[in-house]
Amino acid sequence: MPRRKVRSQSMTPAVDQYSHAKLTDMEVTLHIPDDIAKRLSASGGDVSRRALEAIALEGYRDQTLTLFQVSEMLGLSRVETEDFLGRHHVPLAVLDGADLDREAALFEAASRRNPR
Fold first, then answer.
1. 57: phi > 0 → left, psi -120 to 50 → alpha, else beta; which?
2. What is the spatial distance between Cα 45 and Cα 9, in angstroms, rounded to a whole number?
3. 8 Å CB contact between 37 and 78
4. Please, what is the Cα angle at 104 between 101 and 110, to 5 degrees?
5. pTM of the prediction?
6. Per-residue DSSP letters for the chain?
7. Which of 80, 101, 105, 111 lies 20 to 30 A from 21 at CA?
């Protein structure tokens, strides 16, 4: 059975010598049978984007990814990311004070770099 490649770009964290998170691109190729790819395409939306969103959702659910990392992966603001998680019935993680401050600082720095 022929397979169709679906490419998706995501952002993965890298740590520099000063322990500041920097984001680098990573390309992932999925091999999906043509009949399944056609079904996914027929239901609407970009299959690559849907795959990226599924990875982001699962990463947030299992606490591998933070809210900020999901936001960066998907190119969304904090509010858009929270809305995205809510639409998929994924509750926001409970953060302690230090984690909350760190996430707020990351979003603040990102909003200064790329105002939306």
1. alpha
2. 16
3. no
4. 140
5. 0.64
6. --EEEEEEEEEEEEE-TT--EEEEEEEEEEEEEHHHHHHHHHTSS-HHHHHHHHHHHHHHHTTSS-HHHHHHHHT--HHHHHHHHHHTT-PPPP--HHHHHHHHHHHHHHHHHS--
7. 80
